[in-house]
Specification:
By secondary structure, the chain is mainly alpha-helical. The chain contains 2 helices and 2 strands. The protein has 2 domains: about 30 residues, no CATH class; about 55 residues.
């Protein structure tokens, strides 16, 4: 719960800042990959694949950040972070013609 309490305000600040930032290249990452109808038989494998790829990705990002961190820099400094999480909804029945059956992602 402590982690969620710290992340929620950060996420809200990101959303508000991105909404007020006209240049897409200076916005913070706010992106997801999602499908609404993954068969239950693939959920376990999805968790394995997501964990493996996320760990590799975050290790690379963490190494880069550590290589570039300088608390004694002459200029201004900022805290930066990258947070990843996975979500698995509850099992449900598939409706015949689902309007959102394609992969949907949002990039900002």
């Amino acid at each position: 719960m402590e982690r969620a309490a710290a992340l929620v305000p950060q996420y809200l600040r990101i959303s508000l800042r991105n909404a007020d930032t006209p240049n897409p290249r200076t916005r913070d990452i706010d992106r997801d990959a999602r499908v609404f109808f993954l068969p239950e038989k693939w959920v376990g494998l999805w968790r394995v694949v997501a964990r493996e790829r996320t760990e590799a990705f975050l290790e690379g990002v963490d190494n880069w950040l550590e290589d570039h961190m300088r608390a004694d820099d002459a200029g201004p400094v900022r805290e930066v972070a990258l947070h990843c999480y996975g979500f698995t909804g509850e099992p449900r029945s598939v409706v015949a013609e689902a309007p959102h059956s394609r992969r949907i992602g949002r990039q900002v």
